[in-house]
Amino acid sequence: MFFENWAFSMPNSIFSYCCNFVHDYYMHVMMFGFFIMSFISIISTFSGHSYKFNFKRNDSRGIEMILQFLVINLLILMIGPGFWLIQYQGRMFFQPEMTLKVSGHQWYWSYEYGDSDFLRFDSFIKSLDDLNVGVYRMFEVDNRCIIPVDVNLGIYCTSTDVIHSFAVPKCFLKMDALMGLLTKVTHQFPVVGVYYGQCSEICGANHSFMPIVLEITSLECWKDWVLSFF
């Protein structure tokens, strides 16, 4: 995409791809409108006419009508994708094939898969002494959250103390973690990879030490990882 390096990174989920598409579409429409208005201004300047926007003159009315018609049509072109994205976002809560409960603490995350008593673990930030070469500082954790690819995952987010926010920007995933409440979203990860995030709600002194690491892998590798808990 033409505006890929200007704003969002490459999408790695269906919803992030839709957001990226709408963003690029809006950018193209606005650039098209800017060039058309610039072209009209240049033509009117070098054609020997001095257009003064006055309702008493017919030539100024013509220019104003052209610009108004152009702006209205640009707004009409931008309405459709916006409504489509809102409608798609409202239909994202499809039936999950697997559930993941995320709990925020001061200052670490806990993950729980389904109703299993074995698939529960805490995820803390790695200290500088435990980091290997090529690993991101302040982003790596001791226990990554492993998720199978192409699975409708129901993510439930909550907190045990203060307000947290479970945010993975590259996946367009952001959920508020509130004590006593469950925030739910259904998400699908179609691309294998490792995605990093952080708590995006100020939650205390060590707020910046709550990284999130989602490792998307194949279903076979995920099953082998699950068997390691037993």
Automatic annotation (TrEMBL):
EC number: 7.1.1.9
GO CC annotation, single: mitochondrial inner membrane
Pfam families associated with the record: COX2
Protein name (database record): cytochrome-c oxidase
Membrane association type: Multi-pass membrane protein
Gene3D superfamilies on file: 1.10.287.90, Cupredoxins - blue copper proteins
Cofactors required: Cu cation
Catalysis performed (reactions): 4 Fe(II)-[cytochrome c] + O2 + 8 H(+)(in) = 4 Fe(III)-[cytochrome c] + 2 H2O + 4 H(+)(out)
Transmembrane segments: 25-46, 66-86
GO MF term set: copper ion binding; cytochrome-c oxidase activity
Predominant location category: mitochondrion
Compartment(s) of residence: Mitochondrion inner membrane
Entry's Gene Ontology BP terms: ATP synthesis coupled electron transport
